[in-house]
């Protein structure tokens, strides 16, 4: 059964507002995403190159009346993830509880390849959504967010008439 997650609305940023370096790298990554839409052409995400952090992989499914954002967040629980939205963006913030990182029941690691790290990822949406009606669920390491599209953002078919 999917577990609902609370979704918070994010306030709009102001022009000239101070931004931490991490946010600037995210914006640069988003620009690179727009310029190089094919993932095989894009290098590693800037976030990962500079901070060594793995970002969750995301699918965005566009339906007629809604957008569905799916994020793979293995190793996180529903209480470790915060989802904030605006009409244009979704921000996912995962925080690892440090006792989970330390190792199960003591002991020293001989090899440690599986790591669960904090992440912060902002995703720009392809159309405007009604973020006040957003719903999020979490099951088996997959976060799913359903965002209803605004009426103005829905596709409309235009009938072509003979001139």
Structure characterization notes:
The protein is an alpha+beta fold and 163 residues long. The protein has a domain of 91 residues: Immunoglobulin-like (Sandwich). It is built from 3 helices and 9 strands; from the N terminus they run ββααββββαβββ. Strand 5 and strand 6 form a beta hairpin. About 5% of the residues have low confidence.
Brief synopsis:
This protein is an alpha+beta fold.
Listing every helix as H and every strand as E from the N terminus to the C terminus, the arrangement reads EEHHEEEEHEEE
CATH topology of the domain at 3-10 and 54-98 and 115-152, by name, is Immunoglobulin-like
Please give the oligomerization state of what you see. single chain
Q: What is the molecular shape?
A: globular
Q: Quickly count the helices.
A: 3
**Helix-residue proportion:** 10-25%
State the name of the first-level CATH class of the domain at 3-10 and 54-98 and 115-152: Mainly Beta
* Number of distinct beta strands: 9
- Architecture of the domain at 3-10 and 54-98 and 115-152, according to CATH? Sandwich
Write the layout of secondary structure elements.
Blueprint: E1 3-5, E2 7-9, H1 21-35, H2 46-51, E3 57-62, E4 66-72, E5 81-85, E6 89-94, H3 98-101, E7 119-124, E8 135-139, E9 142-148
Parallel strand pairs: 2-5
Antiparallel strand pairs: 1-8, 3-4, 4-9, 5-6, 6-7, 8-9
């Amino acid at each position: 059964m999917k577990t609902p997650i609370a979704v918070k609305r994010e306030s709009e940023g102001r022009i000239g507002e101070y931004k931490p370096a991490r946010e600037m790298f995210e914006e640069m990554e988003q620009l690179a995403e727009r310029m190089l839409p094919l993932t095989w052409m894009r290098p590693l995400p800037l976030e990962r190159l500079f901070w060594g952090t793995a970002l969750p992989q995301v699918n965005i499914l566009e339906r007629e009346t809604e957008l569905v954002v799916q994020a793979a967040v293995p190793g996180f629980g529903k209480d470790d993830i915060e989802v904030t939205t605006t009409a244009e963006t979704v921000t996912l913030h995962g925080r690892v509880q440090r006792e989970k990182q330390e190792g199960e029941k003591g002991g020293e690691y001989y090899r440690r390849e599986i790591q669960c790290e904090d992440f912060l990822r902002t995703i720009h949406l392809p159309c405007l959504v009604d973020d006040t009606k957003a719903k999020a669920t979490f099951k088996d390491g997959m976060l799913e967010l359903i965002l209803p599209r605004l009426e103005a953002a829905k596709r409309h078919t235009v009938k072509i008439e003979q001139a």
